[in-house]
Write a structure and sequence with these properties.
Elements: H1 2-12, H2 38-83, H3 91-99, H4 133-156, E1 172-178, E2 181-189, E3 194-196, E4 199-200, H5 201-204, H6 208-221, E5 227-234, H7 238-256, H8 261-266
Parallel strand pairs: 3-5
Antiparallel strand pairs: 1-2, 2-5, 3-4
Helix pairs in contact: 6-7
Length: 296
């Protein structure tokens, strides 16, 4: 700053050699001011830089003071929080809580009334009667079972429309088959005896079930005590021969009265049982049974 003042003073005072002398008139004119020197410009720039540095240092010092104040406040708050004692309930409140009885939680929907709709009643109060589909199915099953029982009873009852000529010389012959057994049957008037290959029915067929099956056709017609049966059997086993004999007796009754076809066929007496044992195949133990498999 002192240098600048000196420069300005020097600029204001002209030097001794300043001015020009006119050769003729002798008048003197002031000289132009000299230009600033490089040393003065550098000094000015250095002064400005020093001022900026001082301002920056002052701002940093102010920021450090603020941050120090904030940290001190935070530390004080933390100490107060640690020193403050935890709030505990009063003794009187604890006694009241312990003395209060435990209330049982309420069941959801306990206040609702039970709404039970009786069977066969419409819940909406309409005039139409409410029908349970499961009840309808049960009724249908019961009706079907009742019809089946009625059919069984009807099939077990004798045929009242049978009209067979029982003249002394009447003979009705037919052939019955079952599996590989063949029965040649002859019906004639008599007392209801059976003669099979010269033996009685009980001797040739010791099983009661087979005897009952053989007697079914005559019992159905109602002539079990008025006709005798004479039969010759060959082939098959005892079960196959019994089926063939029943088939032959049924066909012989059809020869005696053709009007019995519908009732005898409905009971299954005229249908030949086509079931037979399946033949054995090569490489198998039986018809379908294979030998034990061996992986190696």
């Amino acid at each position: 700053m002192a240098d600048e003042e000196q420069d300005e003073a020097g600029a204001e005072q002209p030097s001794e050699g300043q001015g020009s002398v006119d050769g003729e008139g002798g008048d003197v004119t002031p000289a132009e001011a000299p230009e600033a020197t490089p040393d003065a410009e550098e000094a000015a720039l250095a002064a400005e830089a020093a001022l900026a540095a001082e301002a920056a240092l002052a701002a940093e010092a102010a920021l450090e003071v603020l941050s120090a104040e904030e940290t001190a406040a935070e530390v004080l708050l933390a100490e107060e929080a640690v020193e403050a004692p935890a709030q505990t309930p009063a003794e009187g409140e604890e006694d009241e809580e312990e003395a209060a009885p435990r209330v049982k939680p309420s069941v959801p929907g306990a206040h609702l009334e039970v709404d039970i709709v009786p069977e066969g009643v419409d819940p909406l109060g309409r005039t139409e009667v409410y029908e349970d589909p499961y009840a309808l199915e049960e009724e249908a099953e019961q009706a079907a079972a009742g019809e089946e029982e009625q059919e069984e009873v009807a099939l077990s009852e004798p045929i009242s429309t049978a009209a067979i000529d029982l003249a002394s010389g009447a003979r009705y012959r037919a052939t019955g088959k079952r599996k590989t057994a063949i029965a040649r049957v002859t019906l004639r008037p008599g007392s209801g005896t059976y003669l099979v290959n010269g033996r009685t029915l009980e001797v040739h067929f010791p099983r009661v079930t087979l005897q009952r099956n053989i007697r079914q056709p005559l019992e159905t017609v109602g002539y079990q005590d008025r006709m005798d049966v004479v039969a010759r059997l060959h082939g098959g086993g005892i079960s196959a021969q019994a089926g063939a004999l029943r088939h032959g007796v049924s066909r012989a009754l059809l020869e005696a009265d053709p009007n019995l076809r519908g009732e005898l066929k409905r009971r299954g007496f005229l249908t030949r049982d086509s079931r037979a044992k399946e033949r054995k195949k090569a490489g198998l133990k039986k018809a379908r049974k294979r030998p034990q498999f061996s992986k190696r």
